[in-house]
Structure formats: structure tokens, C-alpha cells
Amino acid sequence: MLKGYSNERFKQRTGVGCNRTSRETCRNKFKKADQFGASRFIDLDDPRTFDEALNNVTSIFLITGYTVDMLVQSKSLIDAAKRNGVTHIVHLGAFTREHDSYATVFAWHQMIEAYLRDSGIAWTNLHPNMFMQNFLSVWSIKGGLYSAYTSKAIGFTALEDVAEAAAVILMEGPEKHSGMDYWFSVEALTPHQVAETLTAVTGRKFTAAVHHAEGFQNDAAQPGSAFEPAYAKGGLELFRQVEDGRMAYVGSVKDDTKKILGREPLLLSEWAKLHASELLEIAGG
Fold it and tell me: How many independent structural domains does the chain possess?
């Protein structure tokens, strides 16, 4: 939740130096030092742990979990941040280009953003569209088959771009980024265009199959899924509303990567080159 780069690592990654210190929080107090170095224990389900975790912290990168608990967790953390003198919160939200959004997860993020804006703490909201990294996880392309839940184009962004932008925003601080909404959707592609791009980059044949939106909810309900039922329902609503046009803006391009980082964002073809070995391994060759 309080996440970023060490100063040296950040400078190596971006070429930008700074005098801010970053720490990560961890829910397992016994493993945090070995895994994360300079870190602090926090239990998002127990606000009593917040004050110690936020002591002398000036900025927070707020990343929500995949459950409805994200609402009360974020609300409680924002309250604690104000109580402890935090001056800037960067929130990782959703691609809510239209205010009148009622797909579950999108609306949840809008509620968090509304509470954050009303808190009096300087805020910055990041609005990524679909992460390309999903091809390596929830949209796994086993056997070279990309299973999509809408036939329409969807906007994509590389997690590398969003992560680097978040780090820069945290380092440069509220003086430059307070009250800003930044968007990350570099290109809009249909399922078949995705398959064609992956084929061209890797040299391995990829294909796409379009399933009904209900298929996402069924797949998300399988054992070992990272999604709780309410969150999976949000995925169903998203794909259904993209397909029927109510959320057509999910297939639009709006990207602030260059404004923040001074460079062009990664296209899917460029991202796929970086992850070609992983894509081929998942595809089975």
C-alpha cells in the first residue's frame, strides 16, 4: 500500500534523483524484513495497525484488493492518513472516463475517489485501462488461445508504464500532481487484433475466441480464483456493458504517460517483445 522505489533503484530505472524515502507495507510481520527490507506491518482489516505504519509517512500509493472490503479499507486508511499528517495519496483506480458508471468495481473506485477528494489530503488518481500483464495471468493464453469475453475493442496499458508513472508522481509530490486525474490507455484492440500482434512478435501462432460475458463470472468462480463473487460480478458487468455499448469508452485511447514520463508509452507489440519468453511458455512453445 505504501509502495515505491528506493532512491537508488528509482534513479537507475528513470534517471531521476530525489530525496524522498519509500517503504512498503506488509501484512505478514514475520516475513516483511526479509522480503521487503525497509517495510512496516499493516493489517488493512485492523485499523488499529494504521497509526504505527503511517508514522512519519508523507505519501501513500493506495492499491486496493480484489474484494468489496476495498471500500472500508480505503476509507479507514484515508482517515488514518489525515490523522497522521500524510500530505499526498496516489490512488490506483479504474478507467472511468464517464462519470455515470455503474459497473460494480468501477463504481467502487469512484466512491473511494470521492471520499479521497473530500478528505482535504492532496490526491492524484491513476486510471489504467486493461493491463497487458493480464495476458500472463487472468487472461492466460494457454495453448496460444486468447479467450476474450467481448468481441469489441478494449484499451490496453503496460503495467511498467503505470508503475513508473506512479513512482514519478510520488517522488515529484503534490506540488506538481495534486488534484490530477491521469489516464492510461495507449491503444484499443479487438481480440483478433491482439492475437495477430502476439503472433507477429513471437513467431508463434496465436488465435482468439470470444465467449459470452457470463463466461468471465463462471471462470472467476473456479477454485483458486483471486476474485470473490462480488468482484467477479463486476467483471461480468464490465464485459456485458462493453459489448452492448454502455461502456464503449473502455475501447478508447487516452494516455498521459508521455506527459508524466516524457516518453512514449509501450504498445502491445513492444510489451510483447519484453515478455516474449513468458508468452511462449504459457502458450506451450
Answer: 1
SS3 at position 256: coil
Tell me the C-alpha to C-alpha distance, in Å, between residue 140 and each of 63, 89, 157, 212.
23, 32, 17, 17
Residue 257 · residue 264 · CB < 8 Å: yes
For 234, the enclosing helix (H) or strand (E) is: helix 229-244
**What is the distance between the alpha carbons of residues 285 and 277, in angstroms, rounded to a whole number?**
9
Residue 95 structural domain: 7-283
List pLDDT tens digits, range 193-247. Answer: 999 999 999 999 999 999 998 888 777 767 766 677 888 888 899 999 999 999 9
User: pTM score, two decimals?
Assistant: 0.87
Report the amino acid identity of residue 187.
Answer: E
Q: Looking at residue 128, which CATH number applies to its domain? A: 3.40.50.720
> Hunting for cell 524515502 — which residue is that?
21
